[in-house]
Amino acid sequence: MVHWTGEEKQVINNIWSKVNVPECGGEALARLLIVYPWTQRFFASFGNLSGAAAILGNANVQAHGAKVLTSFGDAVRNLDNIKGTFSHLSELHCDKLHVDPENFRLLGDILVIVLAAHFGKDFTPAAHAAFTKLVRAVAHALARKYH
Asked: What is the structure's pLDDT at 87?
C-alpha cells in the first residue's frame, strides 16, 4: 500500500480536477505510440499508425487514450486502494492482452510530461513528485498479476 501525505493528495486532486481527460489521454497514448513504436503492436486494429501525424490524428488512438485516462481517474479517487482498483485491469492486460508491463511505466512517464506541458508553472515540483509517485503506483498495480 502506498502512503500518501495530505499535501500529496491535495496536489493530485487539485491538478486532476482541471485535467481535460480526452485531450490529455489522447495525447499521452499518441506520444507513447510515437516515442516507443514497438508499443503499436498492441493497437493493430486501430488503423493507420504509420507516422506521428497519422497517430496524432487517429480517432481510435484519441478515444482509447481518453478511456485509459478515465481509468487513471479511478486511481485518483481511490488513492488508498490502487491495487484493488486496478486488479481487474491487471488481469485483463496480463491474461488476455499480454501487454508488456513495462509499457505501463512508459505511459505513466509520458503522462507526467503531458500534464507538465498542459499545466506549466502550476505543475510545481510537488505536483511532479506526487504524480510520479501516482503513475508508479498505478503501473505497479497493473503489473501485479504478472508476478
From this structure: 65
Give the list of residues 6+ apart from residue 9 with CB closer than 8 angstroms, or none.
Answer: 79
For residues 52 and 62, the answer to whether their CB atoms sit within 8 Å is no
- Identify whether the C-beta of residue 79 lies closer than 8 Å to the C-beta of residue 2: yes
Q: Which of 52, 30, 24, 26 is nearest to 112 (CA)?
A: 24
pLDDT tens across 92-127, in order?
556 555 667 778 889 999 999 999 999 999 999 999
Question: What is the pTM assigned to this prediction?
Answer: 0.89
Helix axes 59-77, 125-143, angle to 10 degrees: 100
DSSP-derived secondary structure for 27-91 = HHHHHHHHHSGGGGGGGGGG---SSHHHHHT-HHHHHHHHHHHHHHHHHHHTGGGHHHHTHHHHH
Q: How many CB atoms lie within 10 A of CB 47?
A: 12
Contacts of 127 (CB under 8 A, 6+ apart): 11, 12, 15, 115, 119
Query: Do the beta carbons of residue 61 and residue 43 sit within 8 Å?
Result: yes
